[in-house]
Amino acid sequence: MGTDAVLRPGHGVRSRVTRWCCAASATLAASTVAATASAAPITGASHTSSVFVSPSYVYFLTPGGALDGGLTAAGCPFLPEAPDAEARTSTLAVRLDGWYGPIQNPDTNPSQQVDLRGHASGTVQDAAGNIYNAAGNFLDSSTHDLFANDLLFDGIGVMTLVGPRGMVTGEAELRVVSGPLEFAFTFTNIRQCNIRLAG
Fold first, then answer.
1. Within 10 Å of residue 6's Cβ, how many Cβ atoms?
2. DSSP three-state, residue 38
3. Using one digit for the tens of pLDDT, what is the confidence trace for 39-83?
4. CB–CB of 79/126 below 8 Å?
5. What's the rounded Cα separation, in Å, for the pair 199 and 194?
6. Is 82 exposed, middle or buried (0-12, 13-18, 19+ CB in 10 A)?
7. Could you count the other beta carbons within 10 Å of the beta carbon of residue 38?
8. How far apart are CA 32 and CA 149, in angstroms?
C-alpha cells in the first residue's frame, strides 16, 4: 500500500521531484536576482557601460599650468599639440563602466552619486609630431551636480605615456565632459618623466 502510493504516477516520486525542481528553480532565480541587486554599490543604482571617442578637445595639464602648456609647469617637457589639434591627431578612447545612482533632490538641487571606472587608451601626439601610446585607469566615486549636466566623469588614477622621446607616468585626474566632448588629463603627481627634448 505504501509502496504503491510512492510510485503512483503524478502522486509519488515524480510529483515530489517535480515540486522539488520547481522550488529549487524558484530559489535559484530569487538568489540570482538578489545577487544582481546586491552587486550595485549604490542603492537603487543602474549599470552603465559606454565608450567615448572622437573628442573635440584633448588637454594634458598640471594644476595651475597653462591650458596649452602640457606638463612643462611640473618640470616634465612633454608638450602636446593645441587641444583641438590634439583631438584630431589622437586616437584616444575612454571607456566608462559602473553605476549611476538615483537622482537626489530633483526639484531643488539635483545630484547623482556615481561609482564609475574609466579606462583611457590610444595614441597621442606631441607638438613635435612624436606619437605616444597612452593608457590610464581612473575611478570616479563622487556626486555629480546635475545643473552641470555636461559632466560625464571626474576621476583620479594613473596615466602613462610612452613614445620615441621617452615616457612619463603619474597620478592624474581625468575629466570627461560633453557638448562638445572633451578629455582633460591633469597630472597631479608625476612619478617618472624621462622625456628627451629634440637635439
1. 11
2. helix
3. 678 888 899 999 999 999 999 999 999 988 999 999 999 999 999
4. yes
5. 14
6. middle
7. 8
8. 34
